[in-house]
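re: that chain from earlier
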Amino acid sequence: MQLMSIFKKTLQVIFNLVMLAGAIWLFFWIRENKQVVLEKAGKVIDIVDPALVVSKKELPLQSGMKEIVYSWQYAGKYYELKEALYTSTFNFYQASPKAYRYKGELPANWENDYYAMFFMSANGDEFILKMANDLQELGRKNKLSDDQIVELVLAFVQRITYDDAKANAILSGGQESIYYPYETLFVQSGVCSDKSILAAKLLQSLGYGTAIFTYEAEKHMALGIKCPMEYSNNNSGYCYAETTSVGFRIGMIPDFDVNNKAVAEKQLKFFDQGQVDQFNIKRLGPPKIFQTTDGKSYNGIAKTMAVAREIDGLKISIQNLGKSINSFRNQIESSQANLENLMVKMKKLKKSEDYDEYNSLVKKYNNLADDYGSNVEKYNAMIGDYNQKVARYNFLLKSF
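^ sequence. v structure.
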């Protein structure tokens, strides 16, 4: 009996030691992985924060150097930047967490936490900061103001190729992951989320306040840049900036094609040089706003918005005029056909010497001809007005 008691006590000691070791291991595992333990409605929810996991990891030794020359246009001038990227770093981010995992109930702020991971860099990785500084230095060499440097960065990101295949897969319900900024720069392509996060990260590195706007119904994401409240999107303090296509200044909200790529503004032809494309004036709904950071403000928005409003007004006016001109042209062509038919009929009457019927048609023909001439003058005036608006539209577009 005494041996049995000693054996039981020994087992109890061993069990306690195992439990203590397990508790110590769990403590250090939680601390290492930055796991947050929350209690809600009596239920424990364990959430591993992938963003902090990424930032705790060291980059692997750099290998597979790839020199990339980025070229783009801003304000009518061409810019070029040469950077060295590494396959090893690309592989690191490609294998980093890209899914939000949780236990229990979905936290209310899960989307903000999800997007946070893509803003994180590995411990010791300062490439995005270096690139932001290189862009800033390039702007300063070209005597650009602070606001113009912000626009230069946006133009740089806009010029990165839009990945239509990835966008189509997302819109078709596929599970495509967001890229970390380094991935977007390495593959030199991305969709709205990839490019918006890259732009936000670059501008954050330069000290600007940024945010990301998401539009659930349209499955679209855009960059938000801190700006004066009166010009901001939905009174958020951040101005909308489109990253998917070139030609869009801060504050301009574009139309989109079937792959959610902004339809780039293009100069229009005058009416007598051929038909122009009809504008699609679809607009985005209200956004959800995530990853807001404070910092410097972009103050060039007042001038931009004034020009953008005039461009939007001209687009609508040109569209409506184009429809009116086409409708009026159909009326003129119909009148011309009636005149020609009347002339054929009158020639036949004259040839058959049926002058009574012939004379009865002369007055009708003359009245129709007068109306036709008047309508042609109005038509030409409408074309003149249309072309004048197109000239102004093209001028404003070039100034962007």
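The beta strands are 35-40, 43-48, 65-74, 77-86, 161-162, 189-190, 210-215, 220-226, 238-241, 288-290.
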